[in-house]
Amino acid sequence: MYFHWARLNEGLPDRIKNSVGVFTMKVANANDSPRVIRDVDALFANSEAETHTETEKAFRLQFVTGSSAILTALQVVSAVILVIMALILGNTMAMGLRERTGELGVMRAIGFLPKDVRALAFREGAMLGALGGIVGCLLAQPVLRGVGRMAASIGFLSTSRIRFRPRP
Amino acid sequence: MTVAIAALIGAAASALPAVQAARMEIVNALRRQE
Question: pTM value?
Fold first, then answer.
């Protein structure tokens, strides 16, 4: 949707009316960027509206570094979710074992030791966890790619490439 | 590594139920079956 900036300016509050926040420039040669940045800042130095000129890459990186607190919060939330998931898995395992009380009794009666029953439950829990981990790993990559593509489509981090590399 | 950690979490989560199941008396376990 395109409209004249004057229409927007009419609706703005007085304190920000007739002012501009960001100008975007395109230089003919990327090697000239530092000189152009210096020239622009020098042009408006000691004026009522001093400028801070930087490359688009640096401008976008500001958002990334600014969002580090959000990333930390997300990691904490992920850890809490992990603990909750472990509790849910523990409850599921307890319910499963309770349902199979009879079978476990028969196992014990025909000679299986308590350590065998314990190992059985341990292995089942580990297998369920590993299965969840595999499904999560398989789903994470396409979901993250989709989120990255969506973010790029709205202009955020469109010049940055996000690479996914599994940990060894 | 992720799968190994997930398996570890699964094993840790099932520790308590596993111990409870192992401690169960044979007679009680068979009685509950009926």
Answer: 0.55
